[in-house]
Specification:
Blueprint lengths: L1 H33 L5 H27 L6 H5 L4 H5 L6
Helix pairs in contact: 1-2
């Protein structure tokens, strides 16, 4: 069980880090846009970070549903968080 707790903690830290990186990159991209500069590089980084976040959130959901009584995690919480849905994941 300790290994599972360690994996969940590491996963939560990674999700928090990626969310922080997304906020920073989005601000940098907006600064480039405001200065009427090319933001292609920042946009690519942002898309990559969003894909990474989606993967980590899906892994987090899978771990929670696998190791929690009561079945599917998404069913128990009722809906995805707004940030989860913002990056393209749909909980149906």
């Amino acid at each position: 069980m300790a290994l599972m707790d360690e994996n969940i903690t590491r996963l939560k830290h990674n999700v928090a880090r990626i969310r922080r990186d997304i906020r920073i990159t989005a601000r940098e991209m907006q600064t480039l846009i405001d200065a009427d500069l090319d933001c292609t590089g920042a946009a690519r980084v942002l898309v990559h970070l969003q894909k990474d976040l989606r993967l980590y959130l899906e892994k987090q959901d899978a771990m929670a549903s696998r190791h929690s009584p009561g079945g599917d995690f998404r069913t128990r919480i009722g809906a995805c968080s707004a940030s989860h849905e913002r990056f393209g994941h749909r909980c149906d």
